[in-house]
Write a structure and sequence with these properties.
alpha+beta; six-stranded mixed β-sheet; 3 helices; 10 strands; globular
């Protein structure tokens, strides 16, 4: 009888511990895709970041309890995500910083997908591109930001970290 009661108590505790460890990710990575659209004459950018990391960042940097991807999400969360991206994600074409439009975000399971666009780019006139991606490197030492760039059938990828946060390529 005592054994049965012990099992009844231990089983839920064991399940709780197992679930808490399996739901937390142990790596810090974002993936950013930059694709040149000839039809739109624009670089279209999607950046995928773990929701819980972004949530933690918004609280630590701006004091906002964002509660991303929940019914109680802060109304100013997207504004601060944009503000953060503008300070940590920079694209240069031919050595000049180019402005981009922050188009918004959506959620997919445990990832926030942010949409950016650099409009009015005449790719034939551009010789070089550099991408500086410091997203979350100020919060997590282990953060890695993978960047994929596609243009005219070409593809280049690089991994950016805190100590090496800028990738350059010839177009």
């Amino acid at each position: 009888m005592k054994l049965k009661k012990a099992k009844m108590l231990i089983l839920p505790l064991a399940m709780l511990l197992f679930l808490s460890f399996s739901s937390a990710h142990k790596f810090y990575v974002s993936v950013t895709n930059i694709v040149y659209s000839e039809e739109d004459s624009a670089f279209q950018i999607t950046s995928r970041v773990f929701i819980d990391d972004l949530d933690k960042l918004l609280e630590e940097r701006y004091g906002i309890e964002a509660k991303l991807a929940t019914p109680k999400e802060s109304k100013i969360a997207e504004e601060y995500i944009e503000k953060y991206f503008r300070s940590k994600f920079v694209v240069e074409l031919d050595g000049k910083v180019v402005p981009y439009n922050f188009l918004g975000k959506k959620y997919d399971t445990d990832v926030a997908i942010c949409y950016l666009e650099i409009p009015n780019v005449k790719l034939s006139e551009v010789k070089t591109m550099s991408v500086q991606n410091e997203v979350l490197t100020d919060l997590f030492d282990e953060q890695q930001n993978v960047v994929h760039v596609k243009w005219n059938g070409n593809k280049k990828s690089f991994v950016l970290i805190r100590e090496n946060n800028k990738g350059m390529l010839n177009l």
